[in-house]
Amino acid sequence: MAGADLGGRGALIATSEPPEECVSRHTGLVSEQSETDGDQTPSSGRRRGRPPATDSADTRRAILEAARALFAERGYAAVTNKDVASAAGITTGALYHYVESKLDLYAEVDRDMQRTIYTRFQDAVGSSDTFLGKLTAVLEAAHRMGIEDPSLAGFVGAVRTDARRHPEIDERLSRYAEAREQFFVDMVDVGLATGEIEATHKPEMVEFVRTVLVGLTETVGMSPEQHRRAVDAVTGLLRGTIFTPLD
């Protein structure tokens, strides 16, 4: 599967924001929105009601999945809130029960993606006690996610481009870069503890893990077979099974 920088915006690593502090925090007081193509906060002054609790979670999920697919396909600039509402099966006015602007929606999609991937990656790193075992498990998890939901990788690729083109996106998503960076560092620290990595090589290995994980989690334009070979090549190189140095 897989920001203007590696390990920054667009890296498939979780943020530190708790799950409950996502779209649902936008269901407070926001004024009513007419059904237009507008992407900004409604400006009429009337108070909006909260959607019924029984429908809220399902609608929220539909909004996030529709928005992720659209942003992945078209990029930030080409998507309107009306597009998202239509794809999610709701009215544009109803969308504003959940988000206040297109930028808010984009950030919520990013956080939801990070949480989705973080859960899988956390399960993966917990399956081994070694650096190589953890890295291999995370790459395998990324491979499976890319097959199960290509929009995850598509959105990550879109974030990289959008963050370069839209400073407001870069600024919003950069708030969570530190938590993502720590994921790479923690994996390398396991290698230091097991003796797989020498302490003097920690900086290089952090960059290596970041590059490999980000590169092999953005699979836009790569077939599952190509991705499979790429994952096998990385793990084979680390295990010393596919390359023999001549020097």
Can you describe this structure?
This protein is mainly α and 247 residues long. It has two domains: 20-103, Homeodomain-like (Arc Repressor Mutant, subunit A, Orthogonal Bundle); 113-239. Helices cover 60% and strands 0% of the residues. The chain is built from ten helices and no strands. It has helices at residues 53-74, 81-88, 92-95, 102-125, 131-148, 150-165, 167-173, 177-194, 202-215, 224-239. Helix 1 packs across helix 6 (150-165), helix 4 crosses helix 5 and helix 6 packs across helix 7 (167-173).
The class by helix and strand makeup works out as mainly alpha
Q: Tell the overall outline.
A: elongated
Question: So how many helices?
Answer: 10
Helicity range of the residues?
A: 55-70%
Give Rg in angstroms. 20 Å
**In terms of per-residue confidence, which ranges show pLDDT below 50 for 5 or more consecutive residues?**
1-37, 41-50
Largest sheet descriptor: none
Give the amount of beta strand, in percent: under 5%
Order of helical and strand elements: HHHHHHHHHH
- Overall number of strands: 0
Distance between the termini: 34 Å
Integer average pLDDT: 79
Total of domains: 2
